[in-house]
Specification:
278 residues, 8 strands, alpha/beta, 10 helices
C-alpha cells in the first residue's frame, strides 16, 4: 500500500528500529526493492534522488510505476523524492503522487533553509504529503579520510531543535559523521550527538550516507533514534560484485545478477537496521 512515512516513523521511534530507504535509479531497481520488502513483509521507503532524474528514469515514469507498485504492495511503501533542491521539481513530484519529498537546503544559511522548507511544507501538507529537510550537511565520502578532512557539517542540538520548531517539518536529516558515497577512510559516528538530538527533538530523525558506514555503526544508529537510513552506493557495489563473480554471458544474465546483488544488499540492511513489520 502507498503510505506516507508519518505512521511508519512513529512505529520506528517506539520500536527502536530504522527503515531502509534504497535509492532506485531505473524501473528495474524500483521493482526489485518492492519485491524484497514483500518477501520479508517489511516496510519500504522507495527513494528517487532529484540528481538521478534524467536518461535512465523520468520523474513522470517514477511516479507512474512507483505508485502502481506501492499501491499493489502487501506492505507499506513510501514513494519519496530524495534530495530535492529545485522547488519546481519537488512540487511536480507532489502533484504526480509522491507521498513524501525532501527539500535539501542544507548548504544555505539557517534562515534560508527554514524559508525554503516552509515553502515546500505549505505546498505539500494540504495535499497530504510529508516533508523531510536537512540541518547540518552530509558531505561526500570521497572527501572523508578522517573526521578532520570531511566536508560534512555536524548538526548541533540547538540548530536541530530550533529548525524543527520553526518549520514543523515531518522528519529531519541530521549530520553526525556519515557521508554520501563510498569512504576513503572509516567513518566516525558521533553517537553522543545523536542521543542528545534525539532527546531534544520529537521529530523523527533520518540518516543519509548509510553506504559503507559499517554495520555496527548503522545498527547503533537504528536502535538509538534514527528512523530511516538511506542506502545507494552499496546497492551498486553489490550488483557489480555479483556480476564480477558469475561471468554473465548475456544482457539478461547481467540484469538477473544485478537484481540478485541488490536484493541481497537490501535484505542485509533490513537485518542490520532491525526493521520490524509495520
Amino acid at each position: 500500500m502507498l503510505v506516507t512515512s508519518k505512521e511508519l516513523f512513529k512505529k520506528a521511534q517506539e520500536g527502536k528500529f530504522a527503515i531502509p530507504a534504497p535509492n532506485f535509479i531505473d524501473l528495474e531497481s524500483l521493482r526489485w526493492h518492492v519485491e524484497t520488502a514483500e518477501r520479508h513483509n517489511l516496510p519500504l521507503i522507495l527513494a528517487l534522488a532529484e540528481a538521478h532524474i534524467g536518461e535512465n528514469i523520468t520523474l513522470e515514469d517514477a511516479a507512474l510505476v512507483g505508485k502502481k507498485y506501492a499501491e499493489e504492495a502487501k506492505v507499506p511503501v513510501v514513494l519519496h523524492l530524495d534530495h530535492g533542491t529545485t522547488p519546481e521539481v519537488i512540487k511536480k513530484a507532489i502533484d504526480l503522487g509522491f507521498s513524501s519529498v525532501m527539500i535539501d537546503a542544507s548548504q544555505d544559511t539557517f534562515e534560508e533553509n527554514v524559508r525554503k522548507t516552509k515553502e515546500i511544507i505549505d505546498y505539500a501538507h494540504p495535499k497530504g504529503v510529508v516533508v523531510e529537510a536537512e540541518i547540518g550537511h552530509v558531505g561526500a565520502g570521497e572527501n572523508y579520510e578522517n573526521h578532520e578532512t570531511s566536508d560534512s557539517q555536524y548538526t548541533t542540538v540547538e540548530e536541530a531543535k530550533k529548525f524543527a520548531e520553526e518549520t514543523g517539518v515531518d522528519s529531519l536529516a541530521i549530520s553526525i559523521g556519515t557521508a554520501h558515497g563510498m569512504y576513503k577512510g572509516i567513518p566516525e559516528i558521533n553517537f553522543d550527538r545523536l542521543k542528545e538530538i534525539a532527546a531534544a527533538v520529537d521529530t523523527p530523525l533520518v540518516l543519509h550516507g548509510g553506504s559503507s558506514s559499517g554495520d555496527e555503526n548503522l545498527n547503533r544508529c537504528a536502535v538509538n533514534g534514527i528512523t530511516k537510513i538511506n542506502i545507494f552506493s552499496d546497492l551498486l557495489v553489490a550488483a557489480k560484485e555479483e556480476i564480477d563473480n558469475n561471468k554473465p554471458e548475456t544482457y539478461l544474465d547481467i540484469k538477473a545478477l544485478s537484481k540478485q546483488g541488490m536484493q541481497k544488499c537490501l535484505e542485509h540492511y533490513y537485518a542490520v537496521f532491525e526493521t520490524k513489520e509495520a
